[in-house]
Specification:
Keywords: Glycosidase, Hydrolase
CATH architecture of the largest domain: Alpha-Beta Barrel
Strand content: 25-35%
Number of domains: 3
Family: Belongs to the glycosyl hydrolase 2 family.
Largest sheet: 8 strands, parallel, barrel
Strand order of the largest sheet: 23-24-25-28-29-30-31-32
Protein name: Beta-glucuronidase
Radius of gyration: 24 Å
Bound molecules: (2S,3S,4S,5R)-3,4,5-trihydroxy-6-oxo-oxane-2-carboxylic acid
InterPro entries: Beta-gal/glucu_dom_sf, Galactose-bd-like_sf, GH, Glyco_hydro_2, Glyco_hydro_2_cat, Glyco_hydro_2_CS, Glyco_hydro_2_N, Ig-like_fold
Enzyme class: hydrolase
CATH superfamily of the largest domain: Glycosidases
């Protein structure tokens, strides 16, 4: 699905701002049929949970309602009119006046509705959006709903981040010509000094297609006609990690000499390949440095915020990080566009986190119920996962920054049923995008002898907590365990190995001379120990620390107002480890 954009043939109205807001039970039934009966207003984009001084809202389970009016610009009489929600976490229902126009399940991918037949150019309409935050065994991420003796509904879940919900990304009204570009796919290659650009344009109706590739200064560097084809850019400037270069592909639909739709897609020319134990970008070995991140800030929760976006990327540059993983869900498209423009490498992850009944919030529990079974994660979960992959890859396939798909975080890959669950999903990912490697983040209890799925993937991405959940406070033992573990994977698989998580909770301002977990010194020494080991293992292609910044989680005895494994605090101040990392990463410069 194309991100709405203003073009010579399309117009765009942003519907962000303050919307009337209420939780189900406190507003009228069928709230879309009239003015929402509330005095509250919620900011969009933002998760609603932390906006109000109201515990019931923060912990509400079920539907909440957002409402505002919007006016269709009067010049849109001959256009199709669409509404686009960049996300509604985790389920959305959209009403224009009394009419349901869209419904979507999945909290981190966009959806839209053609509302031409229910609105009129120049007139106002009432826009009501219901958002539901419930998680079950067939949603991604999954969760469990229970009813307490008091009758209160409660949501529990297996992932270690707060279940922020609401309209955390932008909402748009846009116009589109009746005959229009529906989708554009760009696949690039390198041929000597030239770049090759294979493109495919899907149109809503038969039309003549012409395309041209344009450089940043506006110079046309290649052109072609037809819905599919290949362009050649001589003396191409590649998109490189740390040195982004983007071109525009201008796509025009022409009918009898008139341009009926015009769409511009940015692209970068680059290649990605896994060869043996190497991860190659543009044919050169690439070593990932960086973090697993979260969309998480005070007050806004998971709400997209351009100021944090700029600042986070500034901090990544300052510290020498060349990459991050969108743990544990697809991030706002603005984040990927920024990464495209600034040469930051992205591992794009799905929201399939928590497919593991042996983990709770990072801690291992006894497996009492099988993870994959008709009662737990089943065919319906797998179907939701497949649908999520389709939506994610459709959304993100043209971003040069995205170099790999991570289709799940820490599933129970050592359990029976894992292979049956994942094999078709890996296959689907490869069909949807044959150009990018595929990985999954491997949980600590899956090792080279009991893991059942690693051979299906291109890169082995390990989440390991030696010195934290195992051998806590004993970095000598932890070093030994870590090295054996990594060497075990390297001995079994001829594949690149990447560390996608390692980290130690750290309270900013807590210090000690000794190996005391939670201190700033311990975090620094813990990371140093890991880096010594990584430098000794040949198949190693990168290190992404858990986490970039402290983030909010659900309540748990091992969480102090959230997870504190950030190298930066939640308000983005550096802990001591940040300075040590900076020394290492600026020195490495993406090559080990
Ligand atoms: C993990 C999870 C991550 C947690 C982290 C932790 O393995 O992938 O979501 O936050 O551990 O800190 O426990």
């Amino acid at each position: 699905m194309l991100k709405p954009r203003s073009t010579p043939t399309r117009e765009l109205v942003n519907l962000d701002g303050l919307w009337r807001f209420g939780i189900a039970g406190r507003v009228q039934d069928e709230p879309w049929t009239g003015r929402l009966d509330t005095t509250l207003e919620a900011a969009v984009p933002a998760s609603y949970n932390d906006l109000f001084a109201d515990r019931e809202i923060r912990d509400h389970v079920g539907w909440v309602w957002y409402q505002r009016t919007a006016r269709v610009p009067r010049g849109w009489a001959d256009e199709r009119v669409l509404l686009r929600l960049d996300s509604a976490t985790h389920q959305g229902r959209v009403y224009v006046d009394d009419q349901l126009v869209a419904e979507h399940v999945g909290g981190y991918t966009p959806f839209e509705a053609d509302i031409t037949d229910v609105v009129r150019a120049g007139e106002e309409f009432r826009l009501t959006v219901g958002v539901n935050n419930e998680l079950t065994n067939v949603t991604l991420p999954p969760g469990t709903l229970t009813v307490e003796q008091s009758g209160r509904r409660k949501q529990t879940y297996l992932h270690d981040f707060f279940n922020y919900a609401g309209l955390a990304r932008s909402v748009w009204l846009y116009s589109r010509p009746a005959t229009h570009v529906e989708d554009v796919t760009v696949v690039t290659g390198v041929d000597g000094a030239a770049g090759t650009v294979d493109y495919a344009v899907r149109t809503s109706a038969p039309a003549d297609v012409r395309v041209r590739a344009v450089d940043v200064d506006g110079t046309e560097v290649a052109a072609g006609t037809g819905a599919e084809g290949s362009l050649r850019i001589e003396d191409v400037r590649l998109w490189q990690p740390g040195a982004a270069h983007l071109y525009d592909l201008v796509v025009e639909l022409v009918d009898g000499g008139t341009v009926v739709d015009s769409w511009t897609e940015s692209f970068g020319v680059r290649t990605v390949e896994v060869r043996g134990t190497q991860f190659l970008i543009n044919g050169e070995p690439f070593y990932f440095t960086g973090f697993g991140k979260h969309e998480d800030t005070p007050i806004r929760g998971k709400g997209h915020d351009d100021a944090y976006l700029v600042h986070d990327f500034q901090l990544m540059e300052w510290i020498g990080a060349n990459s991050f993983r969108t743990s544990h869900y697809p991030y706002a498209e603005e984040v990927l566009e920024f990464a495209d423009r600034h040469g930051i490498v992205v591992i794009d992850e799905t929201s399939a986190v928590g497919l593991n009944l042996a983990v709770t919030g990072g801690l291992a529990g006894a497996v009492t119920t099988p993870t994959f079974s008709p009662e737990t994660f089943n065919d319906q979960t797998q179907a939701a996962h497949a649908q999520h992959l389709r939506e994610l890859i459709a959304r993100d396939k043209n971003h040069p920054s995205v170099v790999m798909w991570c289709i799940t975080n820490e599933p129970s890959s050592n359990e029976e049923g894992a292979r049956e669950y994942f094999e078709p999903l890996v296959q689907l990912t490869r069909e949807l995008d044959p150009t990018r490697p595929v990985t999954y983040a491997v949980v600590m209890f899956a090792n080279p002898s009991n893991d059942r799925i690693a051979d299906l993937f291109d890169v082995i991405s390990l989440n390991r907590y030696y010195g934290w959940y195992v051998a806590n406070g004993d970095l000598v033992t932890a070093e030994d365990y870590l090295e054996r573990d990594l060497r075990g994977w390297a001995a079994k698989y001829d594949k690149p190995i990447l560390m996608t998580e390692y980290g130690a909770d750290t309270m900013q301002g807590l210090h000690s001379l000794w190996d005391i977990p939670w201190t700033e010194e311990y975090q620094r020494d813990f990371l140093d120990m890991h880096h010594r080991v990584f430098d000794r293992v040949e198949a190693f292609v990168g290190e992404q620390i858990w986490n970039f910044a402290d983030f909010q989680t659900t309540r748990a005895i091992h969480r102090v107002d959230g997870n504190k494994k950030g190298v930066f605090t939640r308000d983005r101040r550096p802990k001591a480890a940040a300075h040590a990392l900076r020394q290492r990463w600026l020195g490495l410069n993406g090559v080990k």
